[in-house]
Design brief:
A hairpin with a 3-residue loop joins strand 17 and strand 18. By secondary structure, the chain is of the alpha+beta class. The chain has five helices and 20 strands. The longest helix has 27 residues. It has two domains: 102 residues, Rieske [2Fe-2S] iron-sulphur domain (Rieske Iron-sulfur Protein, 3-layer Sandwich); 187 residues, Naphthalene 1,2-dioxygenase Alpha Subunit, Chain A, domain 1 (Alpha-Beta Complex), CATH 3.90.380.10. Strands 11, 12, 13, 14, 15, 16, 19 and 20 form an eight-stranded antiparallel β-sheet that branches. A four-stranded antiparallel β-sheet has the order 5-6-7-8, with no helix packed on it. A three-stranded antiparallel β-sheet has the order 1-10-9, with no helix packed on it. It holds the Pfam family Rieske.
Length: 355
């Protein structure tokens, strides 16, 4: 028996507010989405992927990674069973060949390609050990730089990909919900919130506050991390989130600690199922103790993530998020939803935003 979606319950007694983009399973915004790990696409290999409801194929050329729709525009054969010939993708069935712009450049029978071919190419990038795809043939946008790591030599590692039952727009709220820090994580800090909306498709929230001293846990936090606790969340295109922890932290209030950073990459599987890919990232240390320092930064990032993931995980399995009863304290969440609803939808959307 198919499990009912939470949106199918209580439709009359607790009606949900619908949004143009936010929490809309039919809309895929323009943004960077992970296709695969870089190591999974070798030379002369054709790789088929399912991404946000699209069947795509990827292969390598001397200029980078090519990505097109996954079915031959001639008779619809799965291009994954084709092969790479002189950096062109050759369909197995009739040996039509396509270049990285999805242009048909060769038909063995000698005829010209039909003018009504429906076949698209997509922009790609390689970063953080992954291949990323943008749902248009070209873009000036780059995969999100984690704040503070721009133009740095990076180290990174990955955690296991996992699924959630709610839309990723909901899980992304987690980092900017000041109430749940107290109620779920027992972090009783009155947070000041700074919001940066300099770039229209990005939004960054920085939360900071002084450690109280009412409990032993709070006093230990102040002793280990300094007077203040601060972190930031930066969102890009409604599908990427960069978390920076331990901003300005000082061990024993004396020694500056390195910031811990990670990125969450999201994609849709189907309504009621999303994929989350956590990537731990930091600046590469140099010098005699660099190997230990690099290991420690990524290890500690993973430890912090696992601690928070376990406490938050229960919330998202059956959540039926509604946006009709916000408090003043929920202002960051309201701001975030407004940001999402102004983003652009892509040709991967099942319906146009707002429909």
């Amino acid at each position: 028996m198919t499990k009912k979606l939470t949106s199918e319950f209580n439709t009359r007694t607790q009606p949900m507010r619908k949004h143009r983009i936010f929490n809309n399973w039919n809309v895929v915004t323009k943004g960077w989405y992970i296709a695969c790990r870089s190591k999974d696409l070798g030379k002369d290999k054709v790789l088929s992927i399912d991404l946000n409801g699209q069947k795509l194929v990827l292969w390598r050329t001397k200029d980078g990674v090519a990505c097109t729709d996954g079915f031959c525009p001639h008779m619809g054969v799965d291009l994954a069973i084709g092969k790479v010939v002189d950096e062109k993708l050759q369909c197995f069935f009739h040996h039509w060949q396509f270049d990285k712009e999805a242009k048909c450049v060769h038909i063995p029978c000698g005829e010209d390609p039909p003018k009504n071919l429906k076949f698209n190419s997509y922009a790609t990038r390689e970063k953080y050990g992954h291949i990323w795809v943008w749902p248009e043939s070209q873009t000036d946008e780059e995969v999100l730089d984690i704040p503070g790591l721009e133009n740095c030599d990076l180290i990174y590692s990955f955690d296991k990909t996992y699924e959630r039952s709610c839309h990723y727009h909901i899980t992304m709220i987690n980092g900017i919900d000041p109430q749940h820090l107290r109620t779920v994580h027992n972090i009783s800090i009155d947070m000041d919130i700074d919001i940066d909306e300099t770039k229209s498709n990005h939004i960054e929230f920085t939360l900071s506050g002084k450690f109280p001293t009412a409990t032993l846990q709070e006093r230990m936090g102040k002793f280990l991390l300094g007077e203040e606790y601060s972190y930031s969340m930066k969102y890009a295109d409604g599908c990427l989130a960069a978390l920076t922890m331990l901003k300005g932290a000082k061990l024993f209030n004396r020694f500056t600690l390195p910031e811990l950073k990670m990125i969450f990459a999201y994609s849709l599987i189907e309504e009621g199922r999303i994929l989350v890919r956590p990537i731990f990232v930091n600046k590469r240390s140099t010098g005699l103790f660099a190997p230990f320092s690099n290991f420690l930064k990524l290890f500690m990032t993973k430890r912090f993530f696992k601690m928070l993931q376990g406490e938050d995980g229960m919330v998202y399995e059956n959540i039926r998020f509604n946006s009709t009863s916000f408090l003043k304290l929920d202002a960051p969440v309201v701001k975030y939803i407004g940001y999402l609803n102004k983003l652009e939808d892509s040709i991967w959307s099942q319906t146009k935003s707002g429909e």
